Every structure is written in structure tokens, then in C-alpha cells.
Please model this.
Amino acid sequence: MNRAALALAAGLASAGSLAAPPSIFEGADLALGEKLIAEHGCNACHVRKVGGDGSAIYRPQGRINSPGALRGMVEYCNTELNLGLFPEETTAVAAVLQRDHYRFGQSTPARD
Model:
């Protein structure tokens, strides 16, 4: 393989690894996470807390800065609101938030 082909292959390989979710969310059931977010009215609570469409809650300055902190925040909501989520459900919800808002380890801008 020539240098240009090697460089292209290396670039594609690294780009592919950026698209992978952080390991804490591997195997998370995204459909379950979406269902739980809807069932528990997460978005409505976020609107009450921050106004607008509630999406500003996903951008607190420096507060949620890692996949573990994101999962911890979902667990905090679970505990404070007495939602009764099991650990795999908490991870599923956090994985949806990772995919839709945070995108830790990914170069693509988050959807809001």
C-alpha cells in the first residue's frame, strides 16, 4: 500500500472509533431508554427547571463532563424523583442522552 492509501485507511479507522459509544454505554438498550424518558416525563421536568424546550439542562458549564458523570446524573434523578429505575435502565436513559445531546468521544456536534 502506498503512503496516501495508508493515511486514508488510518483516518477512516480513527473516524470509525469516534462513532462508537463510550464503553459504559456499550450494549445499552436505546429503545428502552427512549421509552423511559417518555414515561417518566423527563423533558417536561427539564422544561420546568430551565425553561424553553428544556435542552439547556444538557449544557451546564463543566458539570457533566464525562460518560460516568452523565450516568451519575441520571442516577441522581432516579433517586431524587424515586423513579425506581434498575441500573440497566439508568444506563439506557444515559445512553440516549449521550447519543442525542452529549456525544462524549465523538466529533459530530450534538443534536438539540
